[in-house]
Amino acid sequence: MNNRFFSSLALRNIKSNKQLYIPFLLSSTAIIAMFFLMVSLMTNKFVQERSSSLPTLFMIGVVVIGIFSVIFILYTNSFLIKRRKKEIGLYGILGLEKKHVAKILFFESLFSSLLSIAAGLLAGLLFGRLVFMLLNFMLRMPNDIAYTTSLLSVGATVALFVLIFGITLLYNISQFTFANPIKLLKGKQEGEKEPKGSLILFILSLIFLGWGYAISITIPDPLAAIEKFFLAVLLVIIGTYLLFISGSIFILKALKNNKRIYYRSGAFISISGMLYRMKQNAVGLANICILASMVIIAVSTTITIYLGSEETLENRFPYEHNLKLFGDMDYVAEMNNRFFELQDEVIELTEENGLEVAEMESYRYESFFGNLEDGSFVFEQSSVDGDLPVLMMVIPLQDFNGMTGENYSLADDEALFYHSTKTYLKEDLSIGNKTYSLTEIENEFSADMALTESIALVVPDEAHLLDLREDYMGQFPESTHITVDAEIGWNTEGTEAAEKALAEQLESEYNGVSGSFSRYESRDSQREEWYSINGGFLFLGVFLGLLFTLGTLLITYFKQISEGFDDRGKFQIMQKVGLDENMIKDSTKSQIIWMFILPIVIATIHVSFAYPIVRKLLLIFGVTNDMTWLMTFIAVVIAFAGIYWMIYRVTSKVYYSIVK
């Protein structure tokens, strides 16, 4: 027997199993095209030169899609090979040696992989321009990203998926190499024994889920959310698998023990059937639930970030023109003088460019790190191990009154006090050698104070800043970061051309000051970079959302196919003993509804509990509007539920056609 015989036999096998192979090939093609497009974006010359953040974002996309591709193709291939165990076993019974069967599987894998990779690359090339147009729209750059491909992108895509398909071939060969042909003939008829419900696993599932939910609900600030987010995700994933494996069995056994429910024809068939194979079903349901959660979170958060771009710009850059002055420890007096000089200078430059100053805010401040301990603020250095220290910003009263328009007055031992977490309830606070009587105020400062636990302390005058600095340096004489800094922000009225000219002049003028250094930023100059970052996030979120939705669709489809073939023989027997077609359809419908409703309900619960930690993470991007996130979340859940319902309609019809 030559290779032509084995190759023709492989082609015939693919055609005869087209109900399995067509979805597998289509899904593989789609994943390959998505990976190829993401690699093309990452290696695009314009992307690399235009924004330093975009290549990193697309690199994350490449890694995520690559990992997902390995897991997904191996997972769906396992469904495919399971359906063909009887066929492979039959080859052994008919006299083919194992090396001959390996050749057949090799050619099947060769044809399917070549077709998928070629179709994926072609689809990537054809739809590439459309994808780049979408990305250009999201990034809002002045010049469009040119659509280009490279041999590196093609080579990376081919190399990865040749490796993946090679692993699937080795897995498929291993399925019959170490198995008895007689056992293979019965492979797809072998059901699982009724799983035993484990109270320990069920309790563990609740512990893991409760732990993950508790992290999300109790997270104190956005910086802590970054550290805890992936731990919470891992705990919820573990808890989800344990919940579906153990909790579903408890529910089904409880229904089985309820005679009024169980001893009805439809319930008897559906409950018994689901309980009999629940161990396998539970893993599939958990996979669908986790993928659904990923879709909802990825798409809703990235849309929220993109929609909140203007809000973010306003929070990060409260004025059209923003000048920060960083003082040197050895030039504090010079810095104070320079602070007042700069205000006059920027007003003069603004007027020279034909603009009017519409609004101005300026203040000096000093920042310390430490911890609140029994009525005292204990100094710490910024680079500490363990929990993040509390950040304290100290502002002179003169500057605070100027920036807020208030007219507070303070005695030498009094201070105005703002605490981001509002957990400090004492009336006095000791810092260094001073003790202040506190008057609580609201946040009149930066939106960034919500990123970590922060304190704003308004003291009677700038001399208090220097006294606190001396107390700090007495404890940490080697420290170099404690300085008196300042911020000046102002809005202008005039033409767009004059605004641009002023911004260019300020950028070149204030790139460093003797005894200190400054940094000028305009809101307009940051808008392009900010939209490129947020647009990249949105593109990546939508891209990954489509990928995870595709995974949900294919896992559901193959699961329905597998369940349909497993159930067909059983229902044929039931028909012979008197069950009519309507009764069979009613009983199977309850199983399918159970399988479809449960994952989306649990996924929605997961995402609802994830709201607090996601909300904290959104603060890092400057998104403070809760309504934007809430409405986006609801819209994405409804949209995904609609897609999920369509998946249900399509796959349930396939299931019914097989069972009949």
TrEMBL record:
Record-linked InterPro entries: ABC-4_Integral_Memb_Prot, ABC3_permease_C, ABC_permease_BceB-typ
Protein name as it appears in the record: FtsX-like permease family protein
Subcellular location(s) of the protein: Cell membrane
Keywords: Cell membrane, Membrane, Transmembrane, Transmembrane helix, Transport
Keyword Cell membrane: yes
Sequence intervals crossing the membrane: 20-42, 54-76, 104-132, 152-178, 199-217, 229-252, 284-307, 537-558, 592-614, 626-647
UniProt lineage: Bacteria, Bacillati, Bacillota, Bacilli, Bacillales
Family of the protein in this entry: Belongs to the ABC-4 integral membrane protein family.
Pfam families: FtsX
Residue stretches making up the ABC3 transporter permease C-terminal domain: 60-181
Record's bilayer topology term: Multi-pass membrane protein
